[in-house]
C-alpha cells in the first residue's frame, strides 16, 4: 500500500505580512531552504510516495518550485482552490482519497514527527481521524483575580502570572476515507468544525500525543524562533541529510 499525504498550502499567511504578500507562507525560508522543502524531504524519508499540495494564494510559485516532485523522489500533484474552502473543505474535491487512509498536514509546520508512525497508528485504530497533539504552556504576564461566584466583587483568589497547560493540535492529521463523507463538496469547512461534526455523529476521533519538536511558523515570533532552532536541530529535521 502506498502512503499518500495532502499538504495544505493555500492560506494567505496574513500574520506574516508583508513577507507573504509576494511569497506564499510554505516557501518562507527556514535556515537555507523553504519550510515546504523540509516537509517534502521528511515525507520522502518516511516512505511517502504521493503528495498532493492544495494551493491557493500565489499557487503558481509553489507549483513552479516543487514541479512534479521528481527531484524529491516523490509524485507531486496539485489541487488549486479557485475560492477559499477553509482548512479542510478542499479534501472533498481531491481525487483518490476514498480508497485508503492518508496524512493531512499544514504546509507551515516545522517538526521532526514520525509521519509514518502516526499513519500506522491511525490505521491500526478504530478512529476515522487522528490528530497529532502537543502539550503547550502559556504564561499570563499579569496578576489574575478570581472573585466569589455569589459576590462578583469579593476576592476569592489571586494568581500572579499563572501558567496554563493545554493540548494543542500540531496541524498534522490522519483521515480514513469515511471522514471525507462528512465534508460537503465545494462548501467551506475548517478543521475544528469538521472534528466536532465527526464527534457529534458518533465517529471516533483520537489524539496522538507527541513529545517531538514542533513549531507553527504562522506568527512572526514563532518564525524567528524557527530560524534559531533550525541550525541546532537540522540533523533531526532532515534525517539522512539534505
UniProtKB/TrEMBL annotation:
It comes from the Bacteria. Pfam families: NTP_transferase. Residues 5-231 form the Nucleotidyl transferase domain. InterPro entries: Mannose-1P_guanyltransferase, NTP_transferase_dom, Nucleotide-diphossugar_trans. This is Nucleoside-diphosphate-sugar pyrophosphorylase. PANTHER family: SUGAR-1-PHOSPHATE GUANYL TRANSFERASE.
